[in-house]
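Reopening this one. Same input as before:
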Amino acid sequence: MHAVLERVVSQMSSEVLSLNAETTQLHPNGLAYKWSAQQVVEHLVLGYRLTSSALETRLNKGRLSRKRKRTYLQWSLQLMILTFGKLPRGVPALDELMPVAGSFAAMDGQQLGNLIRQEMDAMDKLFDACRRKFGMERVAVHPFLGPLRVDQWRRFHVVHGLHHLTQLRSVIEQVAPMRVPAPIAGPTLVEKLHVPAQRPLA
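Same output, byte for byte:
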């Protein structure tokens, strides 16, 4: 897997690793319209699958999409997201990327981490195949950003992933039990080093 995508996968997996299947289903403040930890991961996985489908279509047809010109809006969004790494606020997710109850079985953190890695890896293999076949051409069309090259697709999924990593951390902070630091057992550092007690000033 490409290093930039591996970094995102590793961060996501690390965040959810300790969660059990019950915790991954909890909604912040019990509000069903707020995504659970699993729903955040599902949204990302659905995005990877949608991209993979678009790439497979191009590879199967053996040619690029005829839509290779960008509108001014698409150019602006590409500049904002791909160059400056900022996703616009208030833009709703595509219907195809909305988590639907029951579409995925309830999973614990380790299973979610494995799922996101598996789907990202499958998508990245298609990126490599498109790069070999089409070079630096714009290989597939993003619904909002328009036609993108392979490197731009990877950049998009990094920015999108980091955006939802922040969301995921917020969800976990609200639904996961507080981690209690382990008590320090044994002699203190002062005792180990035989540091004498502070003498009173003369």
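So the earlier flakiness isn't reproducible anymore. For the record, Residues 109-134 form the longest helix (26 residues).
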